[in-house]
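[Q] Does anyone have a clean structure-token version of this?
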Amino acid sequence: MTTDHGDGTDAGGVDWDARAASFDEEADHGLRDPAVRAAWAARLKDWLPGRPGDVLDLGCGTGSLSLLASEQGHRVTGVDRSPAMVALARQKLAGRHAVFLTGDAAAPPVDGERYDAVLVRHVLWTLPEPDRVLRRWHDLLRPGGGRLVLVEGVWGTVSPVGIPADRLTALLAPLTPRVRVERLSGDPALWGREVDDERYAVVAVRGRSGPVSLQG
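[A] Here you go.
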């Protein structure tokens, strides 16, 4: 959930090491409110494989989504640029089947491993050459059903930042025809409040052509 740009900062120059201690205070970061936590758990259950698998959480932040994936039986590898975020994620998932690495989400230090799902929230929009990054992430998926789960949006009205859903689906089109967009703005339980900007998830499945199934 933290973005990767430079040494521990994002495209806007935010020092995520400095913000790590307070990061979970945002409702959708820490998932401390039971309703917010339940809303994200339900979405992840639909987006991730139905059977326990290997999930790579890029820009994992303090590991809130990693924890939900682990609770659903998945084996999690988390990657974040910020050592402070990684340290908090390790504490949050202590004793679980989870590994956290300090590294660049755009080029994860995973040594050729393949995953059943690559989960990325609010990271792609900050990265240069998103088409190349998506190809790299797609190549990390296991053939025949591995899936990208990308949570993104466009925030702000005067000077909006982010990546629109139609642009993201266009970037994914050369990689796979199996793409589903799920709009998230209308579900305040995910954010702990009403929102009026564009928020969405894309699930893109690697493998043979055909409609996207979010089962299995």
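[Q] Thanks! Anything notable?
[A] The beta strands are 54-58, 75-80, 98-102, 117-121, 147-155, 161-162, 179-183, 198-205.
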